[in-house]
């Protein structure tokens, strides 16, 4: 069988076409697989056995007699002579069976001019070869199964799909208000109303419309807990509620207390990874306590008095409102998630990094479903002050419409604007989603991360950390830059940040970048910080599902070679969409979605 043909039950993209060998053997998460590589020398099996070789691991001989004994998980006996699933990373395969069937030879398979790799079931990692290795029964994708395009292999890791979108933005609660506003070209950036911003040089932001309370998105018995939810937590709780509703997933939080229906997934198979930020204390709570510890005459804070009496003026549960992990804490308690849970605090990159981690958790089999994304509100006194000191917001004066103020990739842009926001997705293993008849928005096929070195103020060169994140995602997906049909970038309208992002994209896409449409969100919803990546991913998934690009707002002139200027909504053929962002701390994350 020549290289590039399917062998052993699996085609590129993970579609099973003849023989699902998921039960042959099982691999371990850290690369230990029972099966192995045919000896690398002349391609012959050693001592009638097989060899396991992994990047960074020793080559370990496994005798044929021992192979059968090492099958785990009650899979039963397996007759080696009946044939093994084969994937060959070089040369031609001499021996064994019809296409789509395991080899039936008595002698070990011979590989001309290249090693042969026996694939096993489980979650083994780092099978490194060329681009686009296919997979077996349920399917797998790089980096777990990188190899020669068109070759089949056994089940290495599970595909992950997006089945639910939960968002909260300045346009309202839910994906539909956001999508309608984006397609219509409307901006939610208006004068700040939650507090008096008249003393700030920046007075515009995207605030979630009132009335808004997490009480409307939790079970009745849980409403008292809203008292210890900061604004960021409430945003996450609302987004999670909308996400499971959109996915049509039943959880402990969606079922009535006397319901006979069971949750769609047991708690142990549900994970939760949510990005969060530095939650600012509510001004009234904190200043009321600080006022009790002023020095005589009111000049400054008396730290001794603060220790004696000031802290006592805070409610005992005060701290529980402001810990970043409380977003995931409340979501997991409400919905009964007992699987892997984590909080990532990397500013704008938090959401995408959380989605990537949640996808990995599902891929390796530690969960079947997970909440993933992020939430944050910097539209408060402390948040706005910090962002102004950091030079990340435009000085808007008396302007009342922020849409024209935020100008992505325009060197003359005055800066960005803030927005409240949350974007949480429901991720599911492909096979469990299909088993319950779920609607799939898109499949996650690539993730990447990178870190940027310190950039001097005014630096306009390509951001190498951002570039690394995108290149890693492309590599993870087994794609080239030419395969990308659209990009959802950061595009914050902050000239230095935009210049680094644009430079990185030019380095990756070259002249073709001018042909790739950009979906810019900041002029419509503002910079939602930890909520940003989740919202990017939600919009990208909606674009893929609808095969449509929303309108772009732009009040200026973007740099040459970038499709970032003002444009109306339109239909588009979208197979692969790249989502990428940098962050104020130098973190970068990228995600690639494929049409389901």
CATH architecture of the largest domain: 3-Layer(aba) Sandwich
Low-confidence stretches: 1-156
Strand content: 15-25%
On the 0 to 100 scale, the average pLDDT is 79
Q: End-to-end span in angstroms?
A: 31 Å
If you compute it from the alpha carbons, what radius of gyration comes out, rounded to the nearest whole angstrom?
Answer: 26 Å
Number of domains: 3
Count every helix, treating DSSP H or I runs of 4 or more residues as helices.
Answer: 13
CATH class of the largest domain: Alpha Beta
Shape verdict: globular
- The H-level CATH homologous superfamily of the largest domain, spelled out, is Thiolase/Chalcone synthase
CATH third-level topology of the largest domain: Peroxisomal Thiolase, Chain A, domain 1
* Sheet having the most strands: 10 strands, mixed
Number of extended strands: 24
Share of helix, binned: 10-25%
Structural class: alpha+beta
Short description:
With 596 residues, the chain is an alpha+beta fold.
Polypeptide structure, described:
The protein folds into three domains: 157 residues, no CATH class; 394 residues, Peroxisomal Thiolase, Chain A, domain 1; 34 residues, no CATH class. The N terminus is likely disordered. A hairpin with a 7-residue loop joins strand 3 and strand 4. Helices cover 23% and strands 17% of the residues. The chain contains 13 helices and 24 strands.
